[in-house]
Design goal:
Elements lengths: L2 E4 L1 H14 L8 E16 L4 E16 L5 E15 L6 E19 L5 E9 L38 E11 L2 E8 L23 E10 L2 E10 L4 E11 L3 E11 L12 E17 L2 E11 L17 E10 L4 E10 L4 E13 L2 E11 L14 E10 L1
Antiparallel strand pairs: 1-5, 2-3, 2-19, 3-4, 4-5, 5-6, 6-7, 7-8, 8-9, 9-10, 10-11, 11-12, 12-13, 13-14, 14-15, 15-16, 16-17, 17-18, 18-19
Length: 395
């Protein structure tokens, strides 16, 4: 993500900009949403046998256009509060890490009176395949989402990674479409239009591909391909989604490093396979009482292999069970875990969210690891057990 650091001056600048644009007619043509989250966390460091306390504060502003129904522009600013040590004084100073997770334009472009394509350009999210945490078809952000997942989420997506992209949604019928996509690099500084920015990367170093989605009986099939020019990797995936009493979904992914035909010496290329499986169902237990149950698995056959997007890639099987109980309209309770059956280690967490009134929620989450230092999860590590309580307010 694009980030910047700053102290009170940064916050003053943001507030000044918002105060400036709010009275303008433009504000009436845009929807402005915000969220503030405050947490205090007790964390047990199993390696040092120490208990620590940490505060966490985050603010988000989300601006969406409402000027034209054919165009949707979105800008999201996310700020996480923190402290830093001054380079000159050595004193502790307030700081904020500001990111721009979304800055995109989506629009519908009519080619004929009856045929319209949809275009997305900018920093946004595109999710290939299906999976709340594990998704072998997600060749853009990685099959294993444990590194990016927000386990404090209950009703929203656990994974919300974004990147700079340009994609075109091309309808092929009532229930099918084709979506080509290109994911170029962003400049580190300056502007290429004025010649002050970085030199553009070679076209062959970009990522590009596409996916095709169509229905076959009661199932939706989605074959896709992505080429990563930086690593020379070819990613081919197939997703299957259907309903057989419960929602089921699965994906297979074949990663091929180097030229598909082999290298210059005729050596075989490096091929790696990944599979994910999932099932989901909602049970109605009573009036306004629901239980959402989900189970996902990430499978890597053939033993160990290393992947920068899959930090636990040396283990062949990982499970993700999740239960979300909603005993009413205002309370949700979640129980989830990441389990490594091969070494019998796990991370287990539970949380509760109570919407007291009008977007104001009380939240509490607890998590614990089990296992030893040779396992994926271990009690003898930092953050072996945590307890977080706090509040969120959406406006």
């Amino acid at each position: 993500m694009v980030g910047a650091r700053g102290g009170p001056a940064l916050w003053c600048a943001i507030v000044a900009v918002l105060c400036t644009i709010a009275p303008l007619p433009l504000a009436a043509q845009a929807r402005i949403d915000g969220e503030i989250e405050t947490l205090n966390t007790l964390a047990w460091n199993g390696a040092k046998d120490e208990l620590g306390l940490l505060g966490y504060g985050r603010g988000e502003l989300d601006l969406r256009s409402e000027r034209d129904r054919n165009v949707q522009a979105r800008l999201t600013l996310d700020a996480v509060l923190g402290e830093t040590t001054g380079s000159n004084t050595g004193d502790t100073e307030q700081a904020a890490t500001v990111t721009v997770p979304r800055a995109s334009i989506r629009f519908r472009f009519p080619l004929t009176e009856d045929y319209t394509v949809r275009v997305t350009s900018g920093r946004d999210r595109v999710s290939w395949g299906m999976g709340r945490l594990f998704n072998a078809a997600d060749v853009i952000f990685g099959a294993d989402g444990t590194g990016a997942a927000d386990f404090f989420e209950i009703s929203d997506d656990l994974r919300n990674e974004t990147t700079w992209l340009s994609a075109v949604y091309v309808p092929l019928g009532s229930f099918s479409y084709f979506e080509p996509i290109i994911l170029p690099d962003l400049p580190t500084e300056g502007s290429p239009s004025t010649g002050s920015g970085d030199e553009p990367s070679e076209l062959s170093s970009s990522r590009a591909g596409g996916r095709l989605s169509f229905e076959l009986g009661n199932f939706t099939l989605e074959p896709a391909y992505l080429y990563d020019g930086t690593s020379g990797r070819h990613e081919t995936v197939l997703t299957v989604v259907g309903l057989i009493g419960v929602d089921v979904y699965g994906a297979g992914r074949l990663s091929i490093d180097g030229d598909i035909g082999g290298d210059a010496d005729g050596d075989a290329v490096d091929e790696r396979a990944t599979f994910s499986l999932g099932a989901y169902n909602r049970f109605t237990l009573g009036r306004e009482v629901d239980l959402d149950a989900r189970l996902e698995a990430l499978i890597r056959p053939g033993g160990a292999w290393e992947d920068k997007n899959d930090p636990q890639g040396e283990y062949g099987l990982t499970l993700y069970p999740e239960l979300v109980l909603s005993p009413g309209r205002t309370v949700s309770v979640v129980l989830r875990s990441i389990v490594s059956p091969i070494d019998l280690s796990a991370y287990m967490s539970t949380g509760v969210s109570w919407n007291v009134f009008g977007g104001f929620e009380l939240v509490a989450f607890a998590g614990v690891q089990s296992g030893d230092n040779t396992n994926v999860f271990a009690w003898e590590r930092s953050g072996a057990a945590t307890l977080s309580t706090g509040f969120t307010y959406s406006f």
